[in-house]
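Morning, I've got a small favour to ask if you have a moment. I'm working through a protein record and want to make sense of it properly. The fold is given in discrete form, as structure tokens running alongside the sequence. Can you walk me through what the tokens say about the fold? Thanks so much in advance, here it is:
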Amino acid sequence: MKLSLPLPLSKQIQPSLYVPTNNYQLLRQPPPKDKVVVVLGATGTGKSRLSIDLATRFAAEVINSDKMQVYQGLDVATNKITDEERCGVPHHLLGTVDPESDFSASDFRAKASLSLKSILRRRHLPVVVGGSNSFVEALVDKNFRSHYDCCFLWVDVAMPVLDSFVSDRVDRMVERGMVKEVRDFFKPNADYSKGIRRAIGVPEFDKFFRAESFCDEETRERIFADAIDKIKINTSRLARRQIEKIHRLRNTKGWMMHRLDATDVFRKRGGEADAAWEDLVAGPGMAVVRRFLYNMEPVGCGGVTAVRDRASLLAAASY
């Protein structure tokens, strides 16, 4: 069952407060802030999956904050969530930007702010999700927190486990047509420092596309294998940088993060993995958001709340 957000949830009418002064001055409490959920995590940890779990439960809309997924095209290479996976949830800033243009953090802040306001006008919950922490920082920093209450969910996976998953995911992306997708986008004189061409999987194939038409099969296979290895290595390096940035944001910005450890999910397969996801990530994440929306969750500063399983969160929620 999807929970709609009644108006009193985010804009409750506050009682007036009379203070005995000489003039019996009427003081009013400031209006409550609108609420925003932010889902963080390294590439491949399941952020998009959690955002859909939340959106289908809390009448939410998703704002994409992945700096490569904002661009049109290369859906496989940038690992965009598919139409089927979206489950009908509205997504903003996903595949909307000209792939040849640059889209900066300040551009994202401006566009995301407009999307956020439109979502709130529809009395839906904005869920910002993506691995580009510089975009999230640009949005949430400065005056944002004076207007909005934020709930930060951090989906985390132990790096050795994530490295293995990332490697397998690259192989699956190849099976889904990534090579043809990037080949169709290939230009010999392209600038790999601009637009979507910065995406992992595009520059790594440059040498292969240049050589494949005139080299022998053995050389072609070797160059192709080298490109795949580079994609896997660079993706793992990206994941490490993203985790480092999350720690920095927590320590220097004072963001209070609810850490959802999904490591055991990635160690399982099939139905067991789905059950573990529900127990370790989706269930606890929804419990945290429920407490946040209904003012049972403190908006404090700093630190990490380790959310271990659904049972402990539900017990706390009924406290």
